[in-house]
Amino acid sequence: MTLRTIKDIEIAGKKVFIRCDFNVPQDEFGNITxxxxxxxxxxxxNYCVDHNCAVILASHNGRPKGEFDAKxxxxxxxxxxxxxxxxxxxxxxxxxxADAAGKSKALKSGEILLLENLRFEKGETKNDDEFAKxxxxxxxIYINDAFGVSHRAxxxxxxxxxxxxxxxxxxxxxxxxxxxxxxRTLQHPTRPFIAVIGGSKxxxxxxxxxxxxxxxxxxIVGGGMAFTFLKALGEQVGDSLVEDELIPDALRIMDxxxxxxxxxxxxxxxxxxxxxxxxxxxxxxxTKEIPFGWKGLDIxxxxxxxxxxxxxxxxxxxxxxxxxxxxxxxxxKGSFKISHRIAESHATKIxxxxxxxxxxxxxxxxxxxxxxxxxxGASLELLEGKILPGVKALEIKEEV
Length: 400
Ligand code: AMP
Known about the structure:
Blueprint: E1 15-19, H1 36-40, H2 42-50, E2 54-58, H3 75-85, E3 90-91, H4 98-106, E4 112-114, H5 129-136, E5 141-144, E6 169-171, H6 173-187, E7 193-197, H7 206-213, E8 218-221, H8 226-232, H9 247-260, E9 263-265, E10 269-273, E11 282-286, E12 295-299, H10 301-310, E13 316-320, H11 333-344, E14 348-352, H12 354-362, E15 371-372, H13 376-383, H14 389-392
Parallel strand pairs: 1-2, 1-5, 2-4, 3-4, 5-6, 7-8, 7-13, 8-9, 13-14, 14-15
Antiparallel strand pairs: 10-11, 10-12
Helix pairs in contact: 7-9, 7-13, 8-9, 10-11
């Protein structure tokens, strides 16, 4: 897939609308606790300013209910943007109301306007054409740089693209980088290509597992989802997280792996507790004899060693999903050790999913990874082999 990028179209001196993903975590006082998503958008914004554009930025933040809610205002984001860009950022009081319309009309070359939270308007999540047209009417060029929401058919992501001709809409640098990394990795991986998949449930990642199985040389499965596979093999998993209704799917996946000669790795031992609790008593046990009433909450030391060895010689590693309940220190060790192992590998290392990005950050391995995706849901849909609605309209169609 090749996207039309901001560099492929004429933007100099024009009014540009950039859909960003400024949906950042904030504490109870409204302070931004992690501004990675804002920083990731700077390249595209600066490129537009350097090309004398008048720049209109738009994003959602949190889940307001289609009307103004002070809790979700973009005011703190405007402030942080101002600090990072070292330029004034004007914030409009509404999204498509009189204030936004007036400020966007008056916006001059080199100036930056941030619209209020897109989800203060009901039309945003409804992919409403009328709302999209009002946004589109503010600018001559549309840029999507919001990878994190590109899997959503929302007005500022999908409907809006219908109001711009092909030479007036494109992907920003961040969106293009995200899509390229996943697309190139999945279509043309340097082998051996190993997927490390974890997280809570098989159901959330079933399609991704099936799609990846067609592409990888090895699949390493940890986290809660491993127990459905282990139970399917007849192991004694105690009270661990199991989706009984997915046991036939788990068997089918393992059978398919065998047919394709994909080496399929599961944990051989686990850290167990009777409850998911920071003060719980823990024991190590093999996955063949987890006592009744105990749950596997992290991979054990033998599994860490097994997975480390399985990762030897990898040329491409794709990691999505923690190996245990990493939010609690006691059950975070397995995820951290796998993070360190992946970080030290010479492979191309791609990390997807919010939780996994968090693990890597906490393990202090972020700088060692080749690429950490900013969007959890969107990256999962790419792994499932789907075309994201927000990306489809920006694709350069092959001549036939
Ligand atoms: P996901 O959103 O599917 O990637 O799952 C991430 C969540 O899986 C994290 O919140 C982890 O706490 C949870 N998780 C990982 N391992 C386990 C496990 N063994 N049992 C229960 N939950 C787990």
